[in-house]
Amino acid sequence: MVLNKFLKNVKSIKTIDGAIDFLKSNFDFTDGVEKALNYSINSHKTQFRKSGEPYVVHPILVATVTAHYSNDEHMVIAALLHDVVEDTEISIEEVEKEFGSDVACIVDGLTKIVEIREHELSDTKDDKKLLSSALTFRKMLIASIKDVRIMVVKLCDRMHNMLTLDALSPEKKKKKKKKKKKTKSFFFFFFFFFLKKKKKKKKNSALI
Q1: Is 21 an active-site residue?
Q2: pLDDT, tens only, 87-121
Q3: What pTM, to 2 d.p., does this model score?
Q4: Residue 54 forms beta bridges with which residues?
Q5: β-sheet bridge partners, residue 48
Q6: Alpha carbon distances (Å) from 131 to 1, 126, 138
Q7: What sign does the CA torsion over 106, 107, 113, 118 have?
Q8: What is the tens place of the pLDDT at every residue in 20-32?
Q9: How many CA atoms lie within 13 A of 101 on its CB side?
Q10: Alpha helices (runs of H) in the chain, residue ranges in sequence order
Q11: Active-site residue, 118 included
Q12: Mean of all residue pLDDT scores within the chain
């Protein structure tokens, strides 16, 4: 299956050069993507993942997954920049100045999404935690309705995180793997919805 082969390739890449080459093989580089790539590399240059690999490998591969499924330049740029506001000193205003309001809107939406933990929804008996989780999920849905690209990039981000569980302890792996199946289901649902929406726009444009 082509999907499995692609994701296996994503999982096997651990270096910046390897990630860049794979991104280039899945997307025709533009000046904007090249600029975002260099911006991301420079912003994350002192950061490393738990596995020891440079952190920037993650956003580059998230951008690759995004490119593989969407081929949308602004989504790819946003994927490259999706952690710069949250994890560095760069502000959303700087992102907007450098890459425009459309990219900044996606990055801002990604930054604001707080992930829902599985145990908060299924295991907790604390009503306050359940309510908090439900409200967070509602925020995610509202964000995706406003611009479905936010959710698509977010799910590509989660997908890559699920592919890189090897660096975690056995206990954490077990917890993360429970999320993996649900992530795939959401991923395919939203990706299908995104494609359907895109095709509808193209059809409407052709009629004008």
Answers
A1: no
A2: 999 999 999 999 999 999 999 988 877 444 443 44
A3: 0.73
A4: 48
A5: 54
A6: 40, 9, 10
A7: positive
A8: 999 999 999 999 9
A9: 0
A10: 2-12, 16-26, 31-43, 57-70, 73-80, 84-87, 92-99, 101-112, 118-122, 127-146, 148-163, 170-207
A11: no
A12: 78
Catalytic residue chosen out of the listed positions 86, 93, 123, 126:
86
Q: How many other C-beta atoms lie within 10 A of the C-beta of residue 13?
A: 21
Residue type, 61: L
79 vs 156: CA distance, rounded Å: 9
Q: Could you say which of 87, 94, 102, 118 is catalytic? A: 87
Find, among 98, 79, 201, the residue nearest to 149 by Cα: 79
Looking up tokens 């533009």, which residue turns up?
A: 30
Torsion of CA 24, 29, 31, 34, to 10 degrees: -10
Which helix (H) or strand (E) segment holds residue 167: the answer is none
Q: Cα separation of 125 and 60, whole Å?
A: 39
